[in-house]
Design brief:
about 475 residues, 7-stranded parallel β-sheet, 19 helices, 2 domains, 16 strands, globular
Length: about 475
């Protein structure tokens, strides 16, 4: 038994380090089992009825994963790869179409409130294939009139044909992964794009009236100086985008950077801290803070992400690696064989995942929301329970650390930094999930090792 706070935090740091490849509770990758397709359909049918009868969160998201990239960036921790030929992309798209056809009848009475095309690099697809995919999705599924449609793209893939297609299919949020404009930095991370390509794509998105443009920028990349990062950020802000996401480079074990023997020096980690601190100050002058997001213009937030965090909303994921959540029933995904091997046309292979329960949904809600704080009645509306009666020990322990404050109406957060949030949210992990994770990771916990030190190296103080 871990008696002291120091021992507990060291153990939680060990858990963090071993779940970085699946960083969202309940970490369904660990202990996952086969789930028959008919079980998934049945669960979705019940879930959609519960949504209709207001017994489950009303929001419903659709995520379409396109895992292909022209080049694998050295900082990348996404589930993506470079195809050997475009034939592989075609094979994948055929399997994706089969998955859409499998689900479309089940969702006839459901309406999606958000659709997200992510990757990888969705803009890698040829125009005729992207047109077919959009037609397939928007014909097979019903969308609410005000549904948010999100599309990810790299600067090198932005052209007028793509932007026109996105506009035609009512895309409301374009996310452009810039990361850096510094040629030396780009060369070092195996990324190929130009400032001119970005500017042309940005201009076209404004021309075709894409409502919101979000830009991703990274801090702490190899060879990136503080001056270079700030110069890029100020350049972007002069264009008046609707949101700028600053991502801290994490030297995770499965990134190409680490696999090729790279490491961040103390100077680089200090520079990363400086970049993040300065970026927060600069962005605060341009944008307001959005709950569960960063800073941006109102309406520019990723609604799908916010809905999942605020109310545990259900999500149908399509494509290899995409994760689905059927509220109160399952967290699951498709195995790789579905998309990269030739399966019989009439057959959908078993899914893989873990069952959910009302108590696990409660834990997920708290883990998602306690970092921003929330109204106690929000928890009660969803679960018809008082949070202090469900998690009295966990709330009290964090309150004793002055990381949570309890009022009559709210749970108020004292959590401010990303690494603090990731670590301390482990207080709400169920003992069953912790045991399952420990059973399925190769490393064993050694109480004599300092896991906190390694954890603090990965996550910047100012993130």
């Amino acid at each position: 038994m871990r008696h002291t706070l120091e021992e507990k935090l060291n153990f939680y740091a060990f858990l963090c380090l071993n779940t970085l490849d699946d960083d969202l509770y309940p970490h369904a990758y660990y202990g996952r089992q086969k789930i028959r397709p008919d079980e998934i359909k049945k669960a979705w049918g019940k879930c959609l009825r519960d949504i209709s009868n207001k017994r489950a969160p009303e929001k419903l998201g659709l995520y379409v994963h396109l895992p292909f990239c022209h080049h694998k960036c050295k900082f990348c921790s996404c589930d993506s790869y470079v195809p050997g030929s475009y034939r592989e992309v075609k094979t994948y798209l055929r399997a994706l179409e089969k998955e859409v056809l499998f689900f479309e009848k089940t969702f006839q009475k459901g309406e999606f409130t958000s659709v997200y095309f992510g990757g990888g690099t969705p803009s890698l697809l040829r125009m005729e294939d992207l047109e077919h995919l959009f037609s397939l999705i928007f014909t097979g599924f019903r969308m609410k009139k005000n549904a948010q449609i999100i599309f990810e793209a790299n600067p090198s893939g932005l052209n007028e044909k793509l932007i026109e297609l996105l506009s035609r299919y009512r895309t409301t949020r374009l996310t452009i992964g810039v990361q850096s404009f510094d040629r030396k930095v780009l060369s070092g991370i195996n990324r190929f794009q130009t400032r001119e390509q970005f500017l042309e794509g940005f201009r076209l998105a404004r021309k075709y009236k894409i409502p919101f443009i979000n830009i991703d920028l990274m801090a702490g990349l190899p060879s990136q100086s503080v001056a270079s990062f700030i110069r890029d950020l100020k350049f972007l802000l002069r264009l008046k985008p609707d949101m700028v996401h600053i991502f801290s480079f994490l030297p995770l074990d499965y990134t190409p950077f680490i696999r090729e023997g790279g490491s961040l020096s103390r100077v680089q980690t200090r520079n990363r801290e400086t970049m993040l601190r300065m970026a927060n100050d600069i962005l605060a002058e341009y944008f307001s803070c959005i709950p569960h997001e960063v800073m941006g213009r109102e309406g520019a937030e990723n609604v799908q992400e916010v809905d999942m965090r605020r109310q545990n909303s259900s999500l149908l994921g399509l494509g290899y690696g995409s994760k689905s959540h059927v509220f109160g029933h399952f967290w699951y995904q498709h195995p790789k064989t579905m998309f990269f091997k030739n399966e019989p046309k009439e057959r959908i292979p078993d899914f893989i995942g873990i069952p959910s329960s009302l108590k696990e949904e409660m834990r997920k809600f708290v883990i998602n929301n306690i970092q921003t704080g929330f109204e106690r009645k929000a928890f009660y509306r969803l679960f018809k329970k008082d949070i202090l009666k469900i998690f009295p020990g966990e709330i009290t322990e964090l309150a004793s650390l002055k990381k949570v404050f309890i009022s009559r109406e709210r749970i108020i957060s004292g959590l401010t930094k990303r690494r603090e949030i990731i670590l301390l949210l482990k207080f709400f992990y169920s003992p069953e999930r912790i045991r399952t994770i420990l059973e399925h990771i190769p490393r064993k916990y050694d109480p004599g090792k300092n896991y906190l030190s390694r954890f603090n190296y990965l996550y910047a103080k100012n993130d």
